[in-house]
Hints:
The chain has helices at about 60-65, 70-85, 90-95, 105-110, 120-135; strands at about 10, 20, 30, 35-40. A hairpin with a 6-residue loop joins strand 2 (about 20) and strand 3. The chain is built from five helices and four strands; from the N terminus they run E-E-E-E-H-H-H-H-H. By secondary structure, the protein is mostly helical.
Amino acid sequence: xHHGLSCPIxxxxxxxxxxxxxxxxxxxxxTDFRVAKFLKLDSNNMTSFAGTFGYAAPEIAFTMQATKTCxxxxxxxxxxxxxxxxxxxxxxxxxTETPTSYDLPLKDVLDQRLPQPLNLVxxxxxxxxxxxxxxLLE
Length: 138
């Protein structure tokens, strides 16, 4: 998300309300850069809290330090929200309480309003879920 930039920008509010899709529903665009911040490479980047509660990494909310990891965590929450069809707040809490939550069957995490993915898509959906979890645990 931040590689290749000479002066990294942290959006600090990657959430479902700040994503727009193109007319073909193929490409997502991040919007609303009001709370974005340029990271100073030689600084601790202390700041006041910015973003949407429920998407911000808990340690960011407490330390008030803007880092690349806050956008990565936001992305993980947003990705799980897409997979689950709702904000994954309770699911995220269960991850921190008991590591056995990782053993949930994928069908229990996916949006129940949609048909279960077919064999060809299951591996891709599992990879997306693993990436989302890795973003939360970074």
